Amino acid sequence: MSDTTIVHLLRHGEVHNPGGILYGRLPGYRLSEDGVLMAKAAAKWFADRDVTALFSSPMQRALETAAPLAEAFDLPVTVDDRLIEAGNHFEGLTFGAGAGSLRRPEHWRHLVNPFKPSWGEPYKGLAARMRAVVIRAREAARGHEAVCVSHQLPVWILRLHAERRRLWHHPNRRECALASVTSLAFDGNRLVEVSYSEPAAGIAKGPSVAGA
Description:
Blueprint: E1 4-11, H1 33-45, E2 51-56, H2 60-73, E3 78-79, H3 123-140, E4 145-150, H4 152-162, E5 181-187, E6 190-197
Parallel strand pairs: 1-4, 2-3, 2-4
Antiparallel strand pairs: 1-5, 5-6
């Protein structure tokens, strides 16, 4: 058996969200038509890979993204709650100035510390839970490859942690597009490479809500 194991972090596809809500952990947010195409594109990208384990966030959009992979590899989808979207004070609201929630003073106290951050789940805790899932996936697919379907912020924080970079950042600088793949390659238990791919590039027609 090979000593090389690869754990892929797949961000879900585009979500049907005509209201522009920061939906976070709210139930009922499904993939859009383009999101379904993105999930299929991701499954096609993995077609020649040695995937033997598949994990997913419990959110509907993540499970729908995992479905084509489950079918292609004839694998069960193991739901791991640690892959869920990050908690956020602004969940269920539109975010921004103008008509968004930033113009309302009652929200300002949640914006005082961007390093933690004060508006949501602490970055250090987020990195810890994502790292624990990666270890679980690595062990489940030892010598092969695993896929974990998650969300933009958890995947990006995990990458920052893996590359030993600072965890606080500007949301617009995240390299984690819809249905993108962030891959962690291990030699035994030692991380040796982090790589990034965008199997669904060109499918999305517009920007997505940051952190979705």
